[in-house]
Design goal:
By secondary structure, this protein is of the alpha+beta class. The chain has two domains: 294 residues, no CATH class; 124 residues, no CATH class. It has 21 helices and eight strands. The strands form two sheets. Strands 7-6-5-4-8 form a five-stranded antiparallel β-sheet. Strands 2-1-3 form a three-stranded antiparallel β-sheet.
Length: 427
């Protein structure tokens, strides 16, 4: 496949994704506006299920984009399936089922990725829902303070929704928020498909070139580098709001057929040059690696989730969606002893070390969100009582590996952790 053919296929895939995005945007905007209206006008009938309808719709949309990213890269690698078979030609639920049948989600690695995607999407959706509710409620309160009656104010709820940018008629705020996250999910799906695929040796950055293309994406267009080049960890799209760029896979033979000027120019595209150009540096708004996009929740997002008291609902959702996976993870962890390096870092006494060694076999287990640096991640927690407090062990929930940290905590700290987590059982 020539470079121009690959560019056309990428453009066709983006066009299909945009069409599906528009359909799903209408659905999610309707769900959000209905939720806000109900919470304002009939708070007594609001249930957890109705309150999460928007979050679930948003989660399904992001998961679709993630799977679509997987699926499209599979086609580029295999070059066997006609684009006419693309899932955009059927209703959303059928399209989602189609993608689930095409992407190998049965392996442990893919089930972990799917769980991480659901967690991130539900967190993003839950926070954006509360932000929108707070915005509309503030407009409602302002109208009352200015002398409008409650009945007059209620009649203007539709106007408040439109002003907040979340109405089905004009969801301008939701659209920006939504499209950024859909593209992030789509691109993360693409990375998951190429990361460990030996057939993919090179990657090429492809921008949509029109009047809306930023200087950054114009500069990066047709940049080709080896898959393992650290460049991709920083410049994997989306790189800014409304970014439409993609990174496409190339095999060795495809790379050899590229024009020499493309190869020469690619060698000149560096992080140093981008960072030294004020306009491009300013346009580079999103800098997380594609792996981190899935594995971690940004600290800013978690701060908002905590402010809205959403963490219990988020952990409950993730646990319910991934119960079997978590039980499987507990089984794998229970067969392992905590490493000597982790025990040394914990600075425990001899008696506590003896308890900590088999901490992963504890019956006191929970699923929670743990902080690592500025970010947060899904974790399995183990607790065991010791003199004067508790030992707290932490392991990644949706990944492999052993317990990575052990700490001594107080009764009060354990109570706080339990309040923000979900108890787990081993069966």
């Amino acid at each position: 496949m020539s470079l121009s053919q690959q560019e056309r296929k990428e453009q066709q895939a983006l066009t299909r994704l945009e069409k599906i995005e528009q359909q799903l945007l209408t659905v999610t905007a309707s769900a959000l506006s209905e939720e806000i209206t109900t919470r304002l006008t009939k708070p007594e009938v609001v249930t957890d299920k109705s309150q999460q309808r928007y979050a679930m719709a948003y989660t399904d949309a992001m998961r679709f984009a993630w799977l679509y990213g997987h699926w499209h890269v599979q086609q580029l690698i295999n070059e066997t399936v006609e684009l006419a078979e693309a899932p955009a030609q059927v209703p959303f639920k059928e399209a989602l089922a189609y993608l689930e049948s095409k992407v190998p989600l049965t392996s442990k690695a893919y089930r972990d990725l799917d769980a991480q995607m659901r967690l991130r999407a539900f967190t993003v959706a839950s926070v954006s829902s509360e932000q929108a509710v707070a915005d509309v409620q503030a407009r409602y309160a302002t109208a009352l303070a200015q002398g409008q009656s409650a009945s007059e104010t209620m009649q203007q709820v539709g106007q408040y929704l439109e002003q907040a940018g979340v109405s089905p008629v004009n969801p301008w705020y939701l659209e920006l928020h939504y499209r950024n996250n859909m593209m992030a999910a789509y691109s993360a799906g693409r990375w998951s498909q190429v990361e460990n695929n030996d057939l993919v040796e090179y990657l090429i950055y492809l921008s949509v070139m029109d009047s809306g293309t930023t200087k950054l994406c114009r500069h990066l267009d047709r940049t080709v580098k080896p898959k393992g080049d650290p460049f991709w960890r920083k410049y994997w799209p989306p790189n800014h709001h409304k970014c439409r760029a993609t990174v496409s896979p190339l095999g060795q033979s495809q790379y050899q057929r590229l024009p020499e000027q493309v190869k020469r120019r690619s060698a000149q595209v560096t992080d140093e040059r981008v960072s030294a150009t004020p306009t491009m540096a300013a346009e580079h708004q999103f800098t997380s690696s594609p792996t981190q996009t899935l594995h971690r929740l940004p600290g800013s997002l978690m701060s908002q989730a905590q402010a809205f008291d959403l963490v219990p609902a988020i952990t409950a959702y993730s646990k319910a969606q991934s119960q079997a996976l978590l039980v499987e993870r507990l089984g794998a962890l229970s067969a392992q002893k905590v490493s000597a390096s982790v025990l040394t870092a914990a600075d425990l006494g001899k008696a506590e070390q003896a308890v900590a060694t088999t901490l992963a076999q504890s019956s006191d287990v929970a699923f929670g969100l743990g902080q690592v640096g500025d970010d947060w991640q899904a974790e399995v927690w183990f607790f065991e009582a010791v003199t004067g407090g508790w030992l707290w062990g932490r392991a990644l929930a949706y990944d492999s590996g052993n317990v990575f940290a052990v700490s001594r905590i107080t009764d009060a700290e354990r109570t706080a952790l339990q309040a923000a987590s979900q108890a787990l059982t081993r069966e």
